[in-house]
Design brief:
The structure is a homodimer of 406-residue chains.
Chain A (H helix, E strand, L loop, with lengths): L6 E4 L4 H6 L6 E5 L5 E5 L9 E3 L7 E3 L25 H9 L5 E4 L2 E4 L17 H4 L4 E2 L5 E2 L1 H41 L9 H38 L4 H49 L7 H74 L2 H8 L3 H12 L12
Helix pairs in contact in A: 4-5, 4-6, 4-7, 5-7, 5-8, 6-7
């Protein structure tokens, strides 16, 4: 089942050329039961499922009904060389234009269809720029229409969410470090083996103290994590960011809405012109077969109205094109801004995460240095010295016993 | 108030020499009201408070009563040149000996008193060896007598307690490390910013993983702490240690007890001799003043008994001296063993604490290396690449809108 989105196609290529048209990726050609050739975009990634009917007689068609790919085309008001009398004056008018390219309007935005010259160059080749790849609408998994710009916007909002989550992660690390520091600090004050004396006692006391030094290192780490990583992650896009995104969103959406109403005006004007032309045709035919007593005045009037309708159409198409240009410019400007913001986001986060690893390196180094005084004192441990100190304090008497005399 | 510990002094120095005797540290000389000179050890650090009376007529005295430093000496059975008739035959006997040194028996152990030649050299000079400084008993704060050996033994038992407490400290550290590792490991699995993609997403994922790596480093640390520090601290003196200490304790104590009983025998023999001598003296006097009709037979009998008593005394003194020698040898051997054990203890603990610092150094280094892959991936963060990846996946269409034709 394909849904057709107000596809209007103007085609002026001869039948043979249609055969040899190289289709854009994802487009397939089918033949209807009536022998009509039509083209279907079967690509699902970010493109519209649309069925266009390219009339082999270069006619313009409107297809507003949905139909099965292999079903009947009875409802499709589509011209074909095999259907006599289906060549309308409107179609004939278009034929005279002899336009070289194929265009299609989807959701009120007009795109080229074929890949023939002049081929569109990317605005920023090799850059995979936002301004080059988000022109069409797409459908989300629920079936709703999503504009390309919307996709870009969501990406930015998700980026802000990512920042927030990274900051939460850092916060959790900070809590872990503070707990660790607290435990080390407590333990350093426990009285185990406090009675050890001498050089060994000194080394042991320093070893215990080193836990308090380690605790300090980890507290410093957690404190710097907060200032230099967590806080910036939370704040480098301020609250203004969401407001700015909303502004862009509304602005672009408004321009699209305007395009929709201008397109409606075009359609209306087109229909009015067709009616006027048909009226003129009928009246001319009637004159020729002397069907009525219409004077040349009536025909002149009909012709005037027809011309006026033609002018109206031109004006509407003009306004539509202006509106589309405006939207186009805004799209390019804004999508490039979003692109810049995304580069900034990635680079800022890269910076902050590098700061994280720097702080980790620092911490490990400071931690190592807490061992230095311990190593030194352990080096100085001297059992002989400790014995001297202890003996001096605790000796009971150095006179050795002698034989008793009688 | 000084307590006197069965001090028996034999002295054979002329009065003048006594005056010029250089006293050991802490000894002071006093003159009693009767004009007797006596010497008091006022040192409180590990020496006995004893009052000895050195008779200026080189007599031996027993002082068993306690008295005030400035009080009367009426109770002291102490000879002096001023007290006629107090020169007993026993004392005369000692006088004949003309022994050069002054000795004192305290708690049944016999020591030299003066510092005169031949001066005692330390058994192990400059080493502050246990075998040189723990000969005398001391008094603990509660007033109980403690032998020098007991002090050495307590030191060893305390050393075992110190090990145990150090091991407890290491155990607490192990618990802290395991807690820290557990927290880091948990956090590394939290889903924060899991949706970040591209090169930034990779770097972020590695950063999160690095916490699990850190956790492993700390777990390894705690595991090695247990094997290489805690366990050895707990086990390097086995349970046999306390048994060995008890054995030494009992053995040395037994030898002291033996000395006490042999000393009692000496005292008893000495008294018996004095009695026999007095008996002989009385009987001889009686013969001279024809006080009784005692025959020469009686005197011969009395003389024989006196000689026998003299032999008994010699035997007892011999046994005593042998007993003291035995104790002396055991003291030297065992105290040197305790000294060796203490050196071993200090060196072993030094070793184990060095192992602790080595493990800490290792840990900090391993911890640093967990940052390497993170640093590398952060280096590779590329906003342009990430844009390309993301655009390729999420683009909606690269055909730009064109003007609608009329």
């Amino acid at each position: 089942q394909f849904k057709i989105f107000h596809a209007v196609v103007s085609c002026s290529m001869p039948a043979e050329e249609i055969e040899s048209v190289s289709l854009p990726v994802g487009w397939k050609s089918y033949i209807s039961p009536e022998g009509r050739k039509y083209y279907v975009n079967t690509s699902t990634k970010g493109t519209t499922d649309v069925c266009i009917c390219v009339c082999q007689l270069h006619g313009a068609m409107e297809m507003e009904e949905s139909f099965d790919a292999e079903g009947s085309f009875d409802d499709v008001s589509c011209l074909s060389p095999q259907s006599p009398g289906s060549t309308s004056p409107a179609r004939r008018q278009n034929k005279e234009k002899e336009i070289k390219e194929t265009k299609i309007t989807i959701n009120c935005v007009t795109f080229p269809v074929s890949m023939s010259a002049p081929e569109q160059q990317l605005l920023k080749p090799s850059e995979w720029s936002y301004c080059d790849y988000f022109w069409a609408d797409k459908r989300d998994p629920q079936g709703a229409t999503v504009s390309g710009f919307e996709v870009l916007l969501q990406k930015q909002l998700k980026g802000k969410q990512m920042q927030k989550e990274m900051a939460e992660f850092i916060r959790e690390r900070i809590k872990i470090e503070e707990e660790y520091a607290k435990n080390l600090s407590k333990l350093s004050m426990f009285p185990m083996a406090a009675q050890e004396e001498g050089t060994l006692g000194e080394a042991w006391a320093q070893l215990k103290k080193s836990l308090a030094d380690e605790a300090e290192v980890h507290l410093k780490f957690s404190s710097k994590l907060q200032c230099e990583v967590e806080k910036p992650l939370l704040t480098f896009r301020g609250d203004n960011f969401k407001k700015d995104m909303k502004k862009y969103d509304h602005h672009i959406a408004d321009l699209r809405k305007q395009l929709v109403s201008r397109y409606a005006a075009v359609e209306k004007a087109r229909k009015a012109l067709a009616d006027r032309q048909k009226d003129l045709e009928v009246k001319t035919q009637q004159l020729e077969i002397k069907l009525s007593n219409k004077t040349e005045e009536d025909i002149k009037k009909a012709r005037r109205k027809s011309t006026q309708a033609g002018d109206d159409l031109m004006r509407c198409v003009d306004l539509y094109n202006q509106g589309q240009s405006k939207w186009f410019e805004e799209m390019v400007t804004t999508s490039l801004e979003l692109e810049r913001l995304e580069v900034e986001r990635v680079e800022t986060i890269q910076q902050l995460l590098r700061q994280y690893t720097t702080l980790r390196h620092e911490t490990d180094m400071f931690n190592q240095s807490t061992m230095e005084p311990v190593d030194q004192l352990l080096q100085s441990v001297d059992p002989a010295k400790d014995r001297e100190l202890w003996v001096k304090e605790h000796k009971t008497g150095d006179l050795r016993p002698v034989d008793m005399d009688i």
